[in-house]
Structure formats: structure tokens, C-alpha cells
Amino acid sequence: MLCGIDEAGRGPLAGPLVVAGVVLKKEIVGLNDSKVLSEKKREKLFEEIIKESKYHIIFTNAKTIDEKGLSFCLKSSIMEIMENLKNDCNTFLMDGNTTFGIVDLACKIKADATVPQVSAASILAKVSRDRYMLNISKDFPNYDFHKHKGYGTKVHVEAIKQFGRSSEHRYTFRLKALGEENTGTQKGLF
Q1: Could you give the number of structural domains in the chain?
Q2: What reaction does this enzyme carry out catalytically (predicted)?
Q3: Which domain holds residue 85?
Q4: Would you list which residues are annotated within the binding site?
């Protein structure tokens, strides 16, 4: 059995990194990379995946990303998934081009579009993260998280200029638009 692993939230300026692992118990029609599916289709597939799989989802908050670094957070999330799902599968496949040095982890570029288990993980991660950002939007009305989900849109950058960063923002992600210098942790994004 194969466990597919994918993440959502590697690049946003705010919100968590979400990593999901999925072992499908049966075939699910319509799986694909979450980014190419409509929100309605992702939501429908999310419910089906939850019912028809063994899965594990990890959220890492912005503060931990700032303190530990994105690669560390990705690696530790993947290792937690592997530990939690090791009795349900014998192969682990991560979307992308790196295994983060993890033994027994394979990687494949565009696996989220070509391997059903990774597509399912992509959907679980994206929907979980989007729901989180929608939920916190009411607590941070100045930022409109419900509209851009924490990504670096022009509107979001303008809100940061006006109100500064919130507790949901990643402080190590430097913004050229704010005149911030790159610290080497994250390249200037805008």
C-alpha cells in the first residue's frame, strides 16, 4: 500500500503549514492536484477521502515556522505522518523533488497530479488549511484572510503595510514591498 504525502501553505505570508498523508482504502474518482480543482470539487472530494482512507494531517503554526525554519517543519511533519501510518502502508511518496534526507521516503515531481494517494493528500492539506484561514479571518478582520488565505496578494501586502503583522504572520518571510532586507531565511517576495 502507498501513502501519498503533500503540503499546503509553504509560501504564504500568514497561517500554518499543513502536511497530509493519505492511504486510500478504495479508488476515488476525480482526484487531482488540489490547485487545479474548484473549491466546490475539493470540498466534495475532501469528505470522500476522509471516509475512504487512513490519513494524518499536521498543522505547524507561523511562530514555529519562524523559530525552526520551513524545511525543519516539513521534515518533522513528514516523519510524524510516516510514524502514524507505518502500519497501513509500505511505501511513502512525497510530492516534489526532495526527501529532506528521510530514509524510506520517495519523491516525485507533480505526484499531486499523477498519483491518486498524493492527489488525495494535496486535497486534505489544502482544504484543511483553507478552512483554518476562513475560521481565523473573523478574528483578524483587517487582513481579509478569507479572501487570499494568507498568500502575498497586493491587498494582503497593503494590509501588512497599514496594520503590521499579526500573530498569524510569518515574521521571517521578508517583504521587499515593505523595504525589508532578506535574512536568508526566506527570499524577498514582493
Answers
A1: 1
A2: Endonucleolytic cleavage to 5'-phosphomonoester
A3: 2-137
A4: 6-7, 95
